[in-house]
Write a structure and sequence with these properties.
alpha+beta, 6 helices, 30% helix, 30% strand, globular
Length: 202
């Protein structure tokens, strides 16, 4: 008799990773939960005071991040000599304020950044949109809406920023960098990015 093969049910986070790696050849990266003020400054991003770490090792690391994207944008800047084109992603922890009981309002978010010196911004933006579409269709069997909105963060483009909606509920955003931030990454490149709250997505 042949042994019975058990099917292991993958989590939605693992399924997200599968889509990004297999369909878009993205590289997974890992980072810390705090904001790096010095790296933000190099990118031209203002570090907004959020939840403060009392015993931070340095003044540059005294705030917890609210979004994954500045960290990933700096990774793109650091690795711009690695190749003319690549994409990175991370599912990591973020904090948006406090709950009523005083605990941190912690959320896991998927952030992804696409970088290219050979393709233009529009083509890269469309690929980022397609990645979001495939995530929604493959995992949830739903088609998301992309709604133009004003930029919430200073690293987002003031015009080309969109909220991602599923069944009318916001689960994240899709955008390209503010021109100042883009120039600080690389003067001869295109970048697009998206972020999805995994809990809202689920």
């Amino acid at each position: 008799l042949l042994p019975v093969r058990k099917e292991v049910q993958k989590s939605e986070e693992d399924r997200m990773k599968d889509v990004l790696v297999k369909s878009y050849r993205m590289h997974e990266v890992h980072s810390y939960i705090w904001t790096d003020a010095q790296k933000n400054k190099e990118l031209g991003i203002e570090t907004v005071p959020t939840v403060k770490i009392i015993n931070a090792q340095t003044p540059d690391h005294q705030y917890v991040r609210e979004t994954m994207i500045p960290t990933l944008l700096y990774f793109a800047k650091e690795n711009r000599t690695f190749d003319d084109e690549y994409s990175i992603f991370e599912i990591g922890h973020t904090v948006e304020g406090f709950k009523e009981n005083g605990y941190c309002n912690e959320e896991k978010k998927l952030g992804a950044v696409l970088y290219s010196k050979v393709r233009g911004e529009e083509e890269l933006f469309i690929e980022a949109r397609d990645a979001v579409l495939e995530l929604c269709e493959d995992i949830l069997h739903k088609i998301p809406e992309f709604v133009s909105v004003d930029a919430k963060y200073d690293f987002q483009h003031p015009v080309n920023t969109f909220n991602i909606l599923i069944d009318g509920a916001g689960v994240g955003f899709l955008s390209v960098p503010h021109p100042v931030v883009l120039e600080n990454i690389d003067k001869k490149c295109a970048v697009a990015f998206f972020e999805i709250c995994t809990e809202s997505f689920a």
